[in-house]
Design brief:
Helix content is about 20%, strand content about 35%. By secondary structure, it is an alpha+beta fold. Strands 1, 5, 6, 8, 10 and 30 form a six-stranded mixed sheet that branches. The mean pLDDT is about 90.
Length: about 425
């Protein structure tokens, strides 16, 4: 159970999303794209029930003009301090309002206090796939009963409305190991088994829905073992530990030594730009450079499986070697596919998401990475006509393994004097 204490009488709430975002996603995706549907519905959304505008003032603290919020704040703050839910330093920072600014970051107290289930932590991050592009929410973690504060990066005044952030259960200290393709040949074979000739023949007419059939009967009970990153060609990635925690002693998050969640981060193999004109997506890149990298990938696969295998499964390898795959006309999306596979233990999936860039976002999805090991970055371009640009080595995609059996419900806590 995720325990929740509400100090602002429901002004902010934790809500669930529909996988179709209330019917707003394309019909083709709603029918076939299970990773997108699960990514849309992932975790709880921190939801604001009516709009609030944070007004920034030169040399003075930011403020929000909202009489009802001021009343709720005035009633809640003494109770939080008196019952020991917050410490004096935290209380002083938010004593005059729900917003505290530090080094250009707005820290917004939602009136909620949350506690992670035993053996887990809660990850707070920007929401995804339906969001405001005017600001970003820093990633932070929560374990003990702690005020839920959103750290918001934006310029100028900020209007908050609807879904502001995502809160989801994670596991600390997941082991992530780098493995060469020769050490995990079964993972490459699983790739060509999925992308077989029947797959491409069906895809000419419509979505194959093959992924849906692969994952429909998976068990949720989490097995043991490390997550493996299998290099299938030239690829740049790092394993990072995110260790910034919220607590009740300070208005700003702090690092905790020896704690945190493991994140697998992929970088772009080469520079590219993409332009969407409302109908077609055009991706431009150094074709000669990509061809040189493709030769390295094919040489690796030939060394591991033999040249006959590579010739037989040329179309499955083409899924990787194209690197870029646009969506059908009219959709402002395209795929970028890092040349690596992610293999998790049985009962584990992978959350895949990326950065909010200048003119684009990389969408959130959930992959059943115990049976399907590709982890593509799905770009959504949100401007027309002018290109979005990504440079070689730029952050492309982040992957967080998690056990599928963590489906925590909410438990609302009562005030001690209620």
């Amino acid at each position: 159970m995720i325990e929740v204490l509400d100090a602002f009488e429901g002004l902010f709430a934790l809500t669930r999303r529909s996988g179709t975002l209330d019917g707003s996603i394309p019909l083709r995706a709603a029918r076939a794209c299970v990773p997108l549907l699960e990514g849309n519905a992932f975790g709880y959304q921190v939801y604001l029930k009516r709009p609030l505008t944070i007004e920034r003032r030169l040399g003075r603290a930011p403020r929000i003009h909202d009489e009802r919020l001021a009343q709720l704040h005035a009633a809640a703050m003494p109770r939080l301090l008196a019952h020991g839910y917050v410490q004096p330093a935290w209380h002083r920072a938010f004593e005059k309002g729900i917003v505290h600014e530090s080094r250009g970051v707005l820290h917004v107290f939602t009136g909620l206090l949350v506690r992670a289930p035993r053996g887990s932590v809660l990850r707070v991050s920007s929401t995804a796939n339906r969001r405001s592009y005017a600001y970003e929410v820093d990633e932070v973690l929560v374990d003990e009963l702690t005020p839920l504060v959103l750290s918001i990066r934006a310029s100028g005044n900020v209007r908050l409305e609807g879904e502001l952030a995502t809160l989801a259960e994670c596991v600390e200290d997941v082991a992530i190991e780098r493995v060469d393709l020769a050490e995990a040949p079964e993972v490459g074979r699983a790739h060509v088994e999925f992308y077989d000739e029947a797959y491409f023949a069906e895809k000419k007419a419509e979505s194959t829905r093959k992924y849906r059939s692969w994952v429909k009967d998976l068990a949720d009970e989490a097995g043991e073992g490390p997550t493996r990153v299998v290099s299938a060609g030239p690829v740049s990635f790092a394993v990072e530990t995110r260790d910034r925690f919220l607590d009740a002693s300070s208005p700003t998050p702090g690092r905790r030594k020896g704690r945190g969640i493991s994140v697998l981060a992929f970088d772009a193999l080469l520079s590219f730009d993409a332009t969407f004109d409302g109908n077609a997506m055009v991706v431009r890149f150094d074709e000669a450079r990509l061809a040189r990298e493709v030769k390295k990938l094919e040489r690796l696969w030939s060394d591991v499986y033999g040249e006959a295998f590579v010739r037989e499964h040329r179309r499955a390898l083409w899924y990787l070697t194209k690197y870029f795959t646009p969506h059908p006309h009219g959709e402002p999306h395209f795929f970028v596919k890092p040349w690596a596979f992610v293999q998790t233990p049985p009962g584990w999936s992978a959350l895949v998401e990326g950065v909010l860039g200048e003119g684009y976002e990389i969408m959130r999805g959930v992959i059943a990475s115990d049976v399907f090991h590709a982890a593509p970055a799905v770009f959504r371009v949100h401007r027309i006509g002018s290109p979005v640009r990504v440079r070689e080595g730029a952050r492309l995609l982040e992957v967080i393994p998690f056990p599928r059996d963590r489906h925590s419900k909410l438990k609302e806590l009562a005030w001690p004097d209620a």
